[in-house]
Design a protein that fits this description.
Length: about 600
Amino acid sequence: ISWVEDEAKAKISSTQAKRQVGNDAFLNKDLRARARRGTGVVSDSKLKIGIVGSGLAGMVAAMDLADAGHDVEIFELRPFVGGKVSSWKDKDGNHIEMGLHVFFGCYYNLFGIMERTGSYDLLRMKEHVHTFVNTGGHTGALDFRFPVGAPVSGLQAFARTEQLGWGDKAANALRLGTSPIVRALVDFDGGMDMVRDLDDITFTEWFTSFGGSRGSIERMWDPIAYALGFLDCDHISARCMLTIFMLFAIRTEASVLRMLDGSPQTFLHDPIVNYLEERGVRIHLRTGIRDIVYETGPDGMPSKVTGLQVKNELKEFDAVVAAVDLPGIKKLLPEPFRKYPEFDGIYNLDAVPIATVQLRFDGWVTEMNDADARKNVHGDLSDGRAPGIDNLLYSADAEFSCFADLALVSPGEYYKEGEGSLMQCVMDSRAYGRSHEQIAADTLSQIHELFPSSRELKCTWSNVVKLGQSLYREKPGQDKHRPSQATPIPNFFLAGSYTYQDYIDSMEGATKSGLMCADEIVAAADAIAREAKTNLPVPEGKVGPKVPGRGPLDMTAAVSFVDDGSFDTNENTDMSMRPSDAPAIDSL
């Protein structure tokens, strides 16, 4: 193991969790089997575990911990599960999302989880083509369809793409030809070590340092960077971009895209919730955490957690998992925890804003050739039978660099008989500061620029969801601040895609972190149980009687949640898990 890989593995404690990091993890398809079957361990010591947050990371950790025999409770501030992959219905029955959720073929861990819950077969595989739509309806593509797999399929895709001119193609080939990706073809460990060493510079700095052209960045790499992390190449870490390209170069299936047949709630979260409920996991919705109860050691440092202040009740736990997002963990951590560098480093990370825009039309926006088909919404056009481009799309000429027609790519719930396209576009910081109305209008205008024939169609409905802090900002120098799942406090754990899991902030990253968190707890279960017997009793009567409370909702409420117009994604995010006016436990 090289010193770079060794440094990555040193962040992780348990042997099983270490399998998720390091060079071998990128080529280890057995990780999918690990996610599918669970830890394979039933702990001798049964722990009472509280998980704060019900995003993918928290729910995946709960799956493994419940299967290992532990008593698990999940607390979620929102009225539904899912975290950044949440979806819900508005009062008119429209499914609303916070982002555009695409499943790369290298999401081995998430696919294993979906096989475990019975939802993997609900994914819809797309053609092995990444399409760019440019002003005026002109398209370019990275077409990976080829009789020979990676890396040949990728090389010919870049060589043949219409998205770049010959000059930019030549510059592209020059830079990629001297990249860690090429070295990895003959020396994978050496190539990956080079990638890890590139976290302190931007992709632009790396790409242009040896022949890469500005034209290639603007016409191809910027849209991809925005799609991955909502940053352009001038601001995104070279490590982040090259991590993905490394997988594309080594694994043919890595660049194949899949999408859900409908909303994340129905096709991803509901099967997980059912799995958890069948194993006795209790999920409390609309239930914020006001504080973490902990003890302090002789050195004055927090030494162990003993419970959570759940609204107006103190609940004791043997172990606590903070499975919240980046703004959530900053809010949730008690100030004294920052005495540990591992926690203090989290505050060097920040997140990017996004706005998810949905526009419904009375025809098919991405059908640019057949005018009659474009306007035809009659008959049964479900199950992907509608005309247009059935895939994720990129653009260098719009403020939404990735988008798709959900009525076509995810027709199970997004296709409506008698209606046309449902364009879902994710706007980044370039547009975030505008009003909802202006964002919708700008998105519509830019769709018209990309698809001129769409001006013949009428936009019949629109929706905008702003999320002020979404993915953590994958700018240079951040990897060293990402905390591990096991922390200096032996029975307090972290989960979430921002935590260190050797991948980017994504659904797969969240899944990996949840699995790693569970591995760490299972490995330490006996020691945690022994230490729990020495806990000081949680004080009674110390919670202010005027703290408002509400009982937990059952999961039927989660599945059927309907926004009456009052739900605000920013006010109801994990950022509020520990309100700023929440008093410390000892002050009550």
